[in-house]
UniProtKB/TrEMBL annotation:
<dbReference type="GO" id="GO:0016020">
    <property type="term" value="C:membrane"/>
</dbReference>
<feature type="transmembrane region" description="Helical">
    <location>
        <begin position="458"/>
        <end position="477"/>
    </location>
</feature>
<dbReference type="Pfam" id="PF13962">
    <property type="entry name" value="PGG"/>
</dbReference>
<dbReference type="InterPro" id="IPR026961">
    <property type="entry name" value="PGG_dom"/>
</dbReference>
<feature type="domain" description="PGG">
    <location>
        <begin position="198"/>
        <end position="313"/>
    </location>
</feature>
<feature type="transmembrane region" description="Helical">
    <location>
        <begin position="201"/>
        <end position="220"/>
    </location>
</feature>
<keyword id="KW-1133">Transmembrane helix</keyword>
<feature type="transmembrane region" description="Helical">
    <location>
        <begin position="289"/>
        <end position="309"/>
    </location>
</feature>
<feature type="domain" description="PGG">
    <location>
        <begin position="372"/>
        <end position="478"/>
    </location>
</feature>
<feature type="transmembrane region" description="Helical">
    <location>
        <begin position="652"/>
        <end position="669"/>
    </location>
</feature>
<feature type="region of interest" description="Disordered">
    <location>
        <begin position="515"/>
        <end position="543"/>
    </location>
</feature>
<feature type="transmembrane region" description="Helical">
    <location>
        <begin position="784"/>
        <end position="808"/>
    </location>
</feature>
<feature type="domain" description="PGG">
    <location>
        <begin position="734"/>
        <end position="851"/>
    </location>
</feature>
<feature type="transmembrane region" description="Helical">
    <location>
        <begin position="257"/>
        <end position="277"/>
    </location>
</feature>
<feature type="transmembrane region" description="Helical">
    <location>
        <begin position="570"/>
        <end position="587"/>
    </location>
</feature>
<feature type="transmembrane region" description="Helical">
    <location>
        <begin position="483"/>
        <end position="503"/>
    </location>
</feature>
<feature type="region of interest" description="Disordered">
    <location>
        <begin position="1"/>
        <end position="27"/>
    </location>
</feature>
Amino acid sequence: MQCKDLPASKIMQHIPSPPRPPQANQMATPNIDSISDTKLYELKEQLLLLTTLVATVTYVTGLNLPGGAWQMQQADGHGPLAGDPILRDIHYRRYLAFYYCNGTALASSVVVCLILVMLRRDSPAWSVVLRVVMVLDLLGLMGSYAAGTCHDTFATIWVVALAFPVLAYITYAFVCYLCLPLRRDNHTPRNTNTGYQEKEKIEVLMLLATFAVTISYAAGLNPPGGFWTSTGHKDGRLLHLAGDPIMEDSALRRYRAFFVCNTTAFVASLLIILLLLDKNLSRTISARFVAVYGFIGVALLGLMGAYAAGSCRETDNTIKVLSLAAGVPICVILQLALNYVFYWPIKNMCDSFTRWLQNLSPGGASALADPDLKNTRFFVMVLASFAVSITYQAGLDPPGGLWKDDLNGHKIGHPVLRTTHPARYQVFFYSNSAAFVTSLVVVMMVQSKFLLKRRTLVAAMVLDLIGLVIAYAAGSTRDASTSIYVVAVACLVLSYVVVHIALGGEKENVAAEPAPAAGTVAPDPATPAATSASPAATPTAPASPVVVLGGGGGGGGRRSKEQLDDKRQVLLLIAILAAALTYQAGLTPPGGFWQKDDEVHGHRAGYPVLLDNYPRRYKAFFYCNAASFMASVALILLLVNRKLYRPGIRCYALHVCMAVGMFALMGAYAAGSSRHLKTSIYVLTLVIAVSASIPLQVAMFWYIRNYRRNHQHDEGRIRRRRTRGLDSPDQEKDEELEYLMLLGVLVASVTYQSGLRPPGGLWEEGNAAGNPILHDVNKRRYDIFLYSNSTSFMASGMAIVMLLPFTLSNLEWRFLPSQRRNRKWPLWPVHTAILLDMLGLLVAYAAGSTRTWKSSRNVIFILLPVLAYIALYAAIVAIYIYICNKNRTSSQLPTTQADQQTTNA
């Protein structure tokens, strides 16, 4: 029997899938608890992505609270200090509610991440704890959103009205979960093969909902237009309070439209996640089916409406932005028309080109099924996508802030760092731009197996990480000694891991996995259901050797290569998200920057406010954040090295790196999010609780593992094994579907945020308060940025919409003649939308990250050396492989001739 392999590069599918239904000679009686627990286990990576992104947005909003910070402080020293949160002085109760709820959500997310790293398939106790902590996380997220956005009666009523169904559904789902054991006898086992196919679609929907939740949460707490920095009065009448949204006074209808659309998208995304996690998604038209896809439509429309309302201040610009949503479908319709007319010529040409690439690749078609190749594609895809997002935001919002006036020779809206430290700014700008352009190119080429096979894109991403480290060292500090310290931390972490592996690591050895019991086969979820119905048991094949680490007795101490790859992907996902989070926080520290020099108090423009007002807190935040960033980068570099990550995981060196990074992250949050003792004590309490949970989890993990090892018997135990073969076309399309969805939602999230907070800053006083400064000082550059960014956002939205039908079923062209009904819905129109997406992103970055046309031109020209490097690297590797193969062939030829002569003799 030939089994199809399970694609290893799927972003959320590197944990073992549920086994196939038992064969005719195998009776299985699953209970409801194990199935419910398996549900969480199968969605382990989706939950990990969700909680890490929630930790990201709660970390950022905790450091930059809604309402803004005081920009000036009184000369006599009385009153609030510059950099302190306005919300605490104006709305103290709302501040406490937001701070505690946001901190609880952050700590709960960290605990969930730690539980998910250790979660096993048959862990009912852990699953109960996981559900409770996730509910606490969700409630904290909703509470902080309500406390941070309810500025008036209208907002409060709207938020409460939308939050009520979410709370009601949480209560209903939790009560149903508690009552599940009472319905155990009435449970009918469902077809797990159908569940495996269903999980393929849930992964994509979870990915979409996760990013919709996070971007709507961040945008709701930091609305477009910014906040008032002082209380306004006119003729003895109160106009506004400090910390209120500026747009609420200048454009009330536009602000309410944004608030309603954004909040609706936030709540709809929460409901999508709850529906996907609670029960199974049916393909039949049912209430649950309509609810899930109905909420998806509401969330997408809400985000587009919020973007149109919040990114513009004029009606004509809003109309133009909305009209861009019609431009992308026109391109797609043209693509589909061409596909209908020229289907067979295009198909034959693509098939010929694919066969030609397979012949070029070493090993032919078998090279395409290499599991290491698929894992590499997964790593490159995720890393490049997140690198695009963080470098795009850092380029539009550079460290040091922006000038608010035209005095002393500088220009309003220009970066402060460019005037005060020109050399440091140039290093940051071009390092960040090089990382952005490199990531953009890699994202577009990640589907090329020719480049992946030669590890060309992996080498490009290593250079990308080096660019990020240089940009961070140049932008997060203002002196050379501190920059050297930042780089030294990364070298220290790398040195520690190498020494740890050298002293405590164990060599790899190859051992055969135990063969399945006689007369049976190991269940494989990727095997078609038709083959499982075979009446006769399939004979077993010889056990294939797999790489395991360590010797020693007992199967519990031996880890297969597959298990280590699973751990590798979990650690990599956490490291990438932590690096993205700390990169942004390090370049824009809490409290903001001084906007002008003050010789009396010794303040200098472009320096962090927190450094002067709370030097100890700033140093604690800076060093903890830098340690977390560098530990994450070092972890990524080690995980992409084939020779280091397996012994590093085996001797727990990489786990130590991850723990250090998480502790440093929590320390940076505790130091930077609060200015007062009471709230600091609460955060420190959460840090201590998280720290105490780690040794407790480790102790329980070791106890459970030792208990199972002592009570485990080898009496015909069937082990699930994966087979690595050629992918079927459907599996390849599912893999490409998740790649495109990830790319679409990432770009949509970054363009959504930058559209609401355009580069150049916002006016803070006068009638133009809340409007973009760039619109008034450089209208042409602002229009280029706005329309390019909007094109990228709308293209991402349309790409997501075009990908949604693939989560329903494999649609067929039913309106075509019978001989053409075998055509599947093509994916290459989605590639057209993604191409428009990437081009719009590049143009928007070039227009918004700098104020001179020369620098914008240089950003575009960075593409040339990046493409030349990739082509040169691939050519050198290809020539090297060709020479090696030729030498091997020539060395084998005399031996073959001698054998023939011996045979003839």
